[in-house]
């Protein structure tokens, strides 16, 4: 009899423990997911929506490219989901990606910095431009995943080479579009707390920043061909061929490329884009450029008009009248079906064939644009 009562107690205790464990797990999931609604961002409303409606890029409630984009119909026998899970591609490095810590650059405003132009690539699209004594940060993402959730979504293949709190004082922060691998809520909030620089963003993206607590005076929204003066620099939003969206709704905010121009030096950044005729127009109006920062990864023949192939990026660089070519948008997040090293392998071959000056830095390596390091194929030893 006593044994039966003991067994009943054990079963009851087991049920309670399992129930408690289940509640704890649910509570943990709720805690991790608590920021997901905020990470989705804001919606256009009020004056912001009215301004968007006046844009030549806006019609029928959404933003549009100048020409239509397309995805290709599925090829016979090709299953993207199956390829994603079981494909033979080497989509991750086989060894740790080598990281460098950039040395301290010249002081802001120092006379010797008048002609300075350096690039520090932190991984993926996150890049620091040091131009004429000023510092401009592009598409900063320091989180472990490019996703609204810390539990799911593409995870980093290497750590950031520096902590976000170790960044030097910034003069401007540029966002190309609102996809999670270019606009990250946690990173924005960290920059809001640790920096005083304004955020320059395409039309509508300010709604996300507004929801995340960025004050209105630090948000500057631009349409294509609009410019803003920051710390002696002229920063211009220029066209790109892509799309936007952080949730179910697509194309509710604009996407752009960027021109950063000082008194003597000029930089172009593609953001995300397919190859299109706009590059020749941008090159004619704003070029030549001392350096171009070109998206080279996350391409696929299934979406040929929204991400450039490496050879197309070289075409775009030449259209832009670019000097030094520095590739971005590769190595950090696994976002497509090609091999991890394929973008820069193809780029290196194409650049040599077409006599294009190229630098392929390690994450954190400072590239002095006038004296760039020779391409040494560093990525091949970890591919």
TrEMBL record:
Entry superkingdom: Bacteria
GO MF terms here are: hydrolase activity
User: InterPro entries of this UniProt entry?
Assistant: Metallo-B-lactamas, RibonucZ/Hydroxyglut_hydro
Q: Name one GO cellular component term.
A: cytoplasm
User: Which SUPFAM superfamilies does the record cross-reference, listed alphabetically?
Assistant: Metallo-hydrolase/oxidoreductase
Q: Where is the Metallo-beta-lactamase domain?
A: 134-330
Key words, A-Z: Hydrolase
Which named protein is this?
Zn-dependent hydrolase
The organism named in the record is Micromonospora inaquosa
Q: What is the lineage of its organism?
A: Bacteria, Bacillati, Actinomycetota, Actinomycetes, Micromonosporales
């Amino acid at each position: 009899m006593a044994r039966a009562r003991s067994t009943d107690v054990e079963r009851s205790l087991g049920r309670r423990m399992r129930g408690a464990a289940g509640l704890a797990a649910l509570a943990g999931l709720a805690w991790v997911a608590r920021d997901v609604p905020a990470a989705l961002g804001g919606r256009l409303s009020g004056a912001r929506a009215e301004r968007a409606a006046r844009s030549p890029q806006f019609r029928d409630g959404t933003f549009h490219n100048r020409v239509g984009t397309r995805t290709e119909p599925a090829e016979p026998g090709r299953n993207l989901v199956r390829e994603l899970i079981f494909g033979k591609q080497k989509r991750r490095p086989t060894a740790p990606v080598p990281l460098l810590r950039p040395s301290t650059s010249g002081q802001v405003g120092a006379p010797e910095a008048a002609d300075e132009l350096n690039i520090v690539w932190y991984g993926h699209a996150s890049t620091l431009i040091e131009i004429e004594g000023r510092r401009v940060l592009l598409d900063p993402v320091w989180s472990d995943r490019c996703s609204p959730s810390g539990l799911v979504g593409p995870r980093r293949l290497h750590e950031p080479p520096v902590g976000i709190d170790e960044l030097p004082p910034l003069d401007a922060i540029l966002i190309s579009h609102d996809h999670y691998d270019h606009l990250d809520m946690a990173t924005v909030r960290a920059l809001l707390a640790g920096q005083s620089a304004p955020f320059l963003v395409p039309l509508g993206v300010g709604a996300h920043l507004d929801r995340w607590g960025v004050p209105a005076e630090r948000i500057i929204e631009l349409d294509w061909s609009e410019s803003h003066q920051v710390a002696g620099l002229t920063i211009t939003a220029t066209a790109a061929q892509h799309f936007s969206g952080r949730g179910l709704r697509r194309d509710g905010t604009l996407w752009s490329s960027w021109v950063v121009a000082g008194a003597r030096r000029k930089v172009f950044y593609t953001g995300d884009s397919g190859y299109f005729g706009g590059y020749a127009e941008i090159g004619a109006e704003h070029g030549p450029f001392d350096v171009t920062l070109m998206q080279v990864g996350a391409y696929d023949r299934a979406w040929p008009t929204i991400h450039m192939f490496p050879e197309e990026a070289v075409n775009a660089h030449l259209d832009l009248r670019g000097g030094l070519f520095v590739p971005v948008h590769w190595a950090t997040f696994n976002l497509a079906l090609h091999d991890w090293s394929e973008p820069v392998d193809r780029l290196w071959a194409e650049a040599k064939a077409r006599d294009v000056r190229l630098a392929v830095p390690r994450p954190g390596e400072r590239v002095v644009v006038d004296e760039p390091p020779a391409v040494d194929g560093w990525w091949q030893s970890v591919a």
